Amino acid sequence: MEAETAPCFRTRHLHRFEAAGKAFLYLQNAAIFALDDPSRAILDLLEPEPRSRDDVMTALEPRWPAAALDEGLDELVRVQAVAPVDQASPEIPKVIPLEPFPLTTMVMNVTNQCNLACAYCYEYGEDKIVDTANGAQPKFMSALTAKQSVDFMFREAGPNKVVHMTLFGGETLLNLPVLKVAIPYARQRAIELGKRVEFNLTTNGTLLKPDAIDFLVENDVAVTISIDGPQEMQDTFRVFHSGAGSYDVAMPKIKELLRRHRTKPIGARVTLTSKTLDVHRMFRHLTEEVGFREVGFAPVTTSPDRQYAIEDGGFDTMLGQFRDLAEEFRDHAVENRHHAFANVKDTLEEIHKGVSKAYGCGAGLGLMGVATDGQVALCHRFAGSEDHSMGSVTDGIDRERQAEFLDRHHIENKTDCRTCWARPLCAGGCYHEAQTRYGTTEAPNLHYCDWIREWTDVCLRIYGELAERNPAYLARFEGRVTDEASQAS
To answer: The whole model's pTM is what?
Structure first.
């Protein structure tokens, strides 16, 4: 009788990184695993080619005791860092919520109009997705629809004690009268239902007149300002319909808001393009000269043939500057000092919480957008699109359509993503970006895969450094809830 052949072991889809002089693994279940020297040597041996246990012992026993090597290999198998070569990679469980998933965040588009004509805006560019079959949407949401939207939000929130209501546009403050109806109504309904509602508003800052600032301060509304940095960068794309730049109009009003509004964070959100890619200068201007406590950056979403689209070398430039700011963030965090770079903070929080996404984001799950006519969409960027509708504020969420969407968009269906080590934090990326680039929300955003992997590696290294040098800093994330993480896990 022939003796059984000893199994050979191979590495799985993992990512190795070093931080604070120590070696770590990031696994596809989103776990971070510290490597001792024997385990590190075993991986060094197995990564080029599969080896049997006996091969491992023969190669490494002169350096470490057999017991340590056995224990190391068994532990790597247990955490699924390595596996027998004849063992198939575990499938990603395709878990679709059986019960209605409670709504965590409603993004209410109170207008689709804007007093600016930003060249890269998805609302007006070639990637505009509005295709309402029954005619054009109203330019402004009515007070009635706003109240119906609030009722919808609480109805669909289920057991959630806290709901998030984001006011959006167009330029949101163009419909200040409806905001003055919707926010007090939402607060009153929250009291009646024993819930709490948190408000956030996005604006370009040009309409932050005294009465608008008074209203935002009095109602404790967190504000995000869409702004692209110093004047020459801001005025490259963020212009009025006449072509005049918006910096001189917006900046005094933004500074007044920052001076007066102290109870809620005022964040800056920057759109990066191939023409405006000096991240360092934007960051310094918005934090040191203007006074923002938090600044986040996002590459422009657009078709690849537009001159301002970021391609190839542009992502390398962006990554280098992001890395510099991330390392600066790390140095501040080690000393428990504040740093305003939101991109690294948000990623560190997801890493710390072990986020492993089944979907690119919470859109269509715990986050939905509402158009000016009350139609419910995947998110605010799809507001008004019949193809991406999820119901209405009067009729509620179309659960059959939602279930079908979740089934089609699960990461298990994205072949390119299934073997990627960065999938827990990415899961294919933004649906609107995919629609714009590839013509379907189901496509993974392959054009920025390298960028995502490299940025995730940067954040893992920062995380490892903080875990070794100031773990108390990371503990602050444990009491917070990240909307996207909770919705997309």
So the answer is: 0.91
Residue whose token pair is 């699960």: 410
- Note the Cα 164 to chain centre separation in Å: 16
Per the document, the length of the chain is 489
CA distances from 276 to 74, 126, 325 (A): 51, 20, 17
Of 34, 46, 45, the residue nearest 460 (C-alpha): 34
Alpha carbon 319 to its chain's center: 17
pLDDT at 485 > cutoff 60: no
Q: Does domain 8-84 have CATH number 3.40.50.2300?
A: no
Tens-place pLDDT, residues 301-353: 887 878 888 887 899 999 999 999 999 999 999 999 999 999 999 999 999 99
What is the distance between the alpha carbons of residues 386 and 388, in angstroms, rounded to a whole number? Answer: 5
| 206 close to 249: Cβ distance less than 8 angstroms | yes
The residues, any chain, with a CB within 8 Å of residue 442's CB and separated by 6 or more, are 408, 409, 413, 414, 434
- Distance CA(322)–CA(328), nearest Å, equals 10
Residue 489: which pLDDT band, with cuts at 50, 70 and 90? Answer: very low
Task: Report H helices in 244-398.
Answer: 247-260, 279-284, 313-334, 342-352
CB within 8 Å of 447: residues ≥ 6 apart = 304, 311, 437
Given a contact cutoff of 8 angstroms between Cβ atoms, the answer to whether 12 and 80 are in contact is yes
Query: Helices 210-218 and 176-193 sit at what angle, rounded to 10 degrees?
Result: 10
Q: Where are the domains of the chain?
A: 8-84, 105-404+448-488
Thinking of the domain 105-404+448-488, which architecture would CATH place it in? Alpha-Beta Barrel (3.20)
Contact 173/216 with Cβ under 8 angstroms? no
For 403, phi and psi rounded to 5 degrees? -60, -40
Tell me: pLDDT of 127 over 60.
Answer: no
Q: How far apart are CA 487 and CA 467, in angstroms?
A: 26
Give the pLDDT confidence score for residue 286 in this predicted structure. 98
